[in-house]
Amino acid sequence: xxxKNPIYLVSTGRTGTKYFxxxxxxxxxxxxxxxxxxxxxxxxxxxxxxxxxxxxRRMMKMLLKHIKFHSxxxxxxxxxxxxxxxxxxxxxxxxxxxxxxxxxxxxSPKSFxxxxxxxxxxxxxxxxxxxxxxFWQPTSYLDQIRGIGNNYYQRVExxxxxxxxxxxxxxxxxxxxxxxxxxxxEQVFNPATGVDVMKGLIKWLDIGLKKPITQEMIVTKxxxxxxxxxxxxxxxxxxxxxxxxxxxLRDLGYE
Length: 255
Known about the structure:
Helix content is 51%, strand content 9%. By secondary structure, the chain is an alpha/beta fold. The protein has one domain: Rossmann fold, CATH 3.40.50. Strands 2-3-1-4-5 form a five-stranded parallel beta sheet, with helices on both faces. The longest helix has 23 residues, at 152-174. It starts with 6 loop residues before the first strand and ends with a helix. The model has no long low-confidence stretch (mean pLDDT 93).
C-alpha cells in the first residue's frame, strides 16, 4: 500500500481549524480528515519542549514515530489533519513525510487574542492548560502562571506573545518552500472572498469535492465562542499587542 501525500493545516489556533476539518470530511473525495487526533495534546507539550531544546531531535522523532506518525502511515486515503498544535514540529513532519503539503492559516492578532480570552472564560480546561500545564504554550512558565491573577491586560500580553511566537515559528519553518500555502482567516470567512479562496486552496491541494463550493459551505465556523457582554479591549490593549505583534504582522504582509 502506498500512502498518499498527507496534508497538515498549521496555525496559532482560533483560526477555523474545526471548520476546515469538517469541510474536508463533508465534501472531500477519498480523504480522511481530522481536527485533532490521538495524543495531540501530548505532542503539543513535547513540541514546546523540543523547541526549548529540552528534547533532542532524535528523541523527538522517536517519540513521534511511535505515538503519532505510525498510525498516519496506515491510511490509504488522503490524510488531512487541521491541528492547531503542530506549529513546533513542522520540520519533524517533513522528515517523515517529505511530500506533505502545509496550509498555513493566519488570523489578525486582535481577533485571535480576543477569541482566546473569551474561550478561556468559557472553558475551564483551557484556563487550566494555559495557566498551569508546563510547556502548554511557547512562553515561559512564569508567563503562564501569572495568568492566575486573571488580569485582562496580562492576558492580552500573554496571547500577544503566543500569537507572535507561533506565527514566527511557522513562517521560519515554511520559508522558501513550494509545498505550503498561506491563507488569511479574514478572507476565508468573508462573503466577498471566501469562495474564491477556498476554490484556490482545493485546486492547489488537488482534492476532488462532492459538489462545487458555494458561500453556504463556508459561512459557518465551528467552535465559535459566545460573545461577551462587556468589551474590555481599549487603547492600552492595542499598545500591548503592537509591542509584540507589529513586526510579525509586517512579515506576514498585513497592512
